[in-house]
Predict the structure.
Amino acid sequence: MNIATTIISFPFQLSPLASRASLQRATHSLSLTPPLSLSKTAMSSSAALPSSSSVTELSDESDFESLLSPGGYISICGFGSLLSERSARSTFPDLANFRTARLNSFRRVFAHVAPVFFERGIAKPETMEISSLSVEPCEGETLVVTVFEIRKSEIPDFIKRELEFRFLAVLPETLDGKSFDYPAVLCARYSDEEFFNIRCKGNKEIYFQQYGQWNIDIIWRDDVLPCRVYLRHCVLAAKNLGETAYNNFLDHTYLADRKTTIREYLATTGSGIMEEQPPESLKHRYGG
């Protein structure tokens, strides 16, 4: 299964990815009005979802609220940095019930550009080591993930933090195959066209604040490699969850070519990544 990169022509011109210095020169801030929001029209790619009836797309905040437990909590599915409880708590300090789970019919792929890596100085545009993780439907694949609960009041911040993703409600299982009582929110692959037209409302200034200030004109792409610091962090986080999660991450997480597993990558082109240390200021956040 190979999903081609979606490329769109924006109604403005952004220069290609360049050196870190040129990216910094391009940076300035813009205020956002109105605030970013979701839309009912964001469901144009539902045909790409797994055939299972347990997967649905969430299009606005009310859809998130429909997943709340009687106690007012919503479940979140972690598959990358959120495999680390320490990372999860750095974003959601009051999270509850952090645990491992299994998610069927999805795979992990390093196939989209993350602005946060540029903001923190750990992106390497000269080698295209700039990508973060998402998940996408893939029949026959199974992921070991984490699941935890956050309060209803934290939903808006969660949406804002993960705005470049497609939000899905999925039903994970325990590692021994028992379905969860409540669905969990999963951040899945989106598309450039939907992000610009729906999340940015076709507004180039909104896009600029999110991505354009870093000279990023394509988000979802197949010519990128994992951000080295982030990949190391995710591998360590999976390892800390135990052998099952660790091996699952290595063998069911792919480069953007959808062929090369992370185990293969770390043994070849990516050798040495696991021996590298994050910058001092990021050692806690990216320490696994």
Residues 113 and 187 are 15 Å apart (CA to CA). The beta strands are 56-57, 73-78, 96-113, 129-151, 166-170, 184-188, 225-226, 253-254.
